[in-house]
Amino acid sequence: MTRVRVEVDGVTYEDDVEPRLLLVHYLRDRLGKVGTPIGCDTTNCGACTVLLDGVSVKSCSVLAVQADGRQVTTVEGLGIDGTLHPLQRAFHEEHALQCGFCTPGMIMAALDLLRENAAPSDEEIREGLEGNLCRCTGYQNIVRAVRRAAREMRTPAQEREVTS
Amino acid sequence: MIPAAFDYARPTTVEEACAALADAGEDAKVLAGGQSLMPLLRLRLAYPDALIDLDRVEALREIRDEGDALFIGAMATHHQVMRDPLVREHAPLIAKATATVADPAVRHRGTFGGALAHADPAGDLPAVALALDAEFAAVSAERGERRMPAAEFFVDWMTSALEPDEILVGVRVPKLGAGWGVHYEKFHRTAQAWAIVGVACAVRRGQDGVEEARVALTNMGPTPVRATEVERSLQGRAASEDAFKEAAQRAAEGTSPPGDLHGSSEYRAHLARVLTARALTAAAAG
């Protein structure tokens, strides 16, 4: 067992973990953060994407011990006091999900993309999300939602109300 | 699946890492970014007794200028490499090819050295290192550092020349000077899939045409291979699309491409010819 201290969505946890415990299993089984789903066993699908020290990683390909001393942000840490994050709101409003299984990963990958590129083209959004698979093939609306969220995140809310 | 149990060491220096690896014995594996090894552990295709995790060996993330070459630390991530100003200026082929590796989340964790030590002939970076005449630096606790050329590093299918107690610490990449154009051409069916065939090439043009051409192939055998016949036949030729197409006809000579679900070996040989012509043309235009 190895002692780890990890900050997840703003709360610090200390736990003894086996070295082989995957970060995604730690989040779901130990912390109850089931907002992060497990989609595949091959690092392909991106459903389990979270931010580790602010950058996107597939949490099925990171060990819990590797998150020791670091910050993890899951989809559960995005909304503040019941208010949806602009990306969550845009996914809702643009119907960017059908079954919703890929949605947490899509949103976290999109958040990482917008951190580096606040105004991506559709092509850049597609490239930024290339590590995330949607089994309902709802990519058109996902791209639309990311574009909408990017616009909202660039424009302060007040200004939007005036211009809309 | 859940990986089989293993002992875990998290060194912070190369010396500690080498000592931990030596202590752990022959059934230990070095964990770099984990983007190839972690899936193998989860599928239980690999079940080492011990993992030596290089994640906290910060010294191995450095990319430095050595005058006529760059030294890229083994733990430099793909994300870091493709944006690094030194790499973009002096080894643009690495920056371009790295941008085609997997996807952003994988590139945040995956490392230059890990991708090379994995020695997957379908990986993009082995062929790139081979085309650039890169030199590999390995360190062990007992014997210190040794260096070997790329052609000696890739021994067989997913097998490198690293000894069980050795860690790849970095790769020395000679700078390409003025006059070089580069390109990495990759053919795959879906986003983030492995290359069915890939072509890494660098072309130096002079007043009288092609002065030097380097062409290395991804997934055309158990190791990355240089298309030496293409390189030879281009020397001194005019840098025209016709000349590139003609030379590219020899791209599959001396190769032994695999046949699998994604294509027969004949199809791969065909792809190698077509993609080499495209890669040469793009490189000479760049």
Number of helices of chain A: 6
Mean pLDDT of chain A: 94
Q: What is the third-level CATH name, the topology of the largest domain in chain B?
A: Uridine Diphospho-n-acetylenolpyruvylglucosamine Reductase, domain 3
N-end to C-end Cα span of chain A: 56 Å
Query: Given this structure, which CATH class of the largest domain in chain A is correct?
Result: Alpha Beta
Helix-strand topology string of chain A: EEHEEEHHHHH
CATH topology of the largest domain in chain A: Ubiquitin-like (UB roll)
Question: How many whole angstroms does the radius of gyration of chain A measure?
Answer: 16 Å
CATH architecture of the largest domain in chain B: 2-Layer Sandwich
The structural domain count of chain B equals 3
Figure out the total of helices of chain B. Answer: 12
Number of domains of chain A: 2
In which range does the helix fraction of chain A lie? 25-40%
Strand content of chain B: 25-35%
Query: Could you say which structural class the secondary elements and strand pairing of chain B correspond to?
Result: alpha+beta
